[in-house]
Amino acid sequence: GAVVSQHPSRVICKSGTSVKIECRSLDFQATTMFWYRQFPKQSLMLMATSNEGSKATYEQGVEKDKFLINHASLTLSTLTVTSAHPEDSSFYICSARDSARGEYGYTFGSGTRLTVV
Amino acid sequence: EDQVTQSPEALRLQEGESSSLNCSYTVSGLRGLFWYRQDPGKGPEFLFTLYSAGEEKEKERLKATLTKKESFLHITAPKPEDSATYLCAVQAPGAQKLVFGQGTRLTINP
Q1: SS3 per residue for chain B
Q2: Helix, strand and coil in chain A, % to nearest 5
Q3: Does A74 reach chain B within 8 Å, measured CB to CB?
Q4: What are the C-alpha distances in Å from A66 to residues A58, B24, B54?
Q5: Closest approach of B3 to chain A, Cα-based (Å)
Q6: What are the chain A neighbours of B34 within 8 Å (beta carbons)?
Q7: Is residue B56 within 8 Å of residue B35, measured between CB atoms?
């Protein structure tokens, strides 16, 4: 139980284009999802907290107009990187909390490797 | 501000050589301390949650312990497949988000 599916696993896009990453909770409902960014050999950096039916809460220093988050249903959150540039290349990971599973609550997706060329 | 510091940054062990990873934390109250394992190119995989000082949890060759200031992840007789980055995170009371440490990259040589 508590599976989070993230898609795509890898994407290459041209500079200036937009890319959408999907995060789905497969067997539970997630009122809250989290988006992280991870650079090589570094830890996870929280970008934003996504709340179903309301606006996302962005961490300090994260451009909300560049990283658009939509959490339209209890099982799906999307992150759109708009007008991507090479410096946006990174590993993006989502997580969701299944409040019914207590200590196992924070489940992570498998990540999306974004390369902007 | 809540902070998590993990040490060492990297650790190389021989197969069967037991050791411990450290996670020091500063948080105003502790709702939970989490240990995750992350393989290259993958998302973190849940290992343990600890809630109060003195608590211990075990899973196969791993044992996590917690004090009021730090947590240890003990690995006993490790195997090459235990090679991964181990992440520690804390959650403050009333907070939804986790605050992660920098991780420890563990390599077990056969």
Answers
A1: CCEEEEECCEEEEECCCCEEEEEEEECCCCCEEEEEEECCCCCCEEEEEECCCCCEEEECCEEEEECCCEEEEEECCCCHHHCEEEEEEEECCCCCCCEECCCEEEEEEC
A2: 10, 50, 40
A3: no
A4: 11, 34, 44
A5: 13
A6: 106
A7: no
Q: Please write the tens of the pLDDT for every residue from A11-60.
A: 999 999 999 999 999 988 888 899 999 998 888 999 999 988 888 999 99
Tokens representing residue A13 in the block: 């896009």
| Chain B interface disruption, residue of A26, A39, A44, A62, most B CBs within 10 A | A44
Reduced to 3 states (helix: H, G, I; strand: E, B; else coil), residue A29 is coil
Other Cβ atoms within 10 Å of A100 Cβ, number: 11
**Residue A104, pLDDT score:** 59
- Sequence-distant (6+) residues with CB within 8 A of B6 are B21, B22, B23, B24, B86, B87, B88, B101, B102, B103, B104
Contact present, B12 and B107 (Cβ < 8 Å): yes
What is the rounded distance in angstroms from the CA atom of residue A70 to the CA atom of residue A72?
6
- Tell me the chain A residues in contact with residue B46 when contact means C-beta distances shorter than 8 Å: 104, 106-108
Residue carrying the six token digits 């497969």:
A26
Q: Are B61 and B82 in contact (CB under 8 A)?
A: yes
Cβ within 8 Å of residue B65, ≥6 positions away: B50, B55, B56, B71, B72, B74
Strand partners, A23: A6, A77
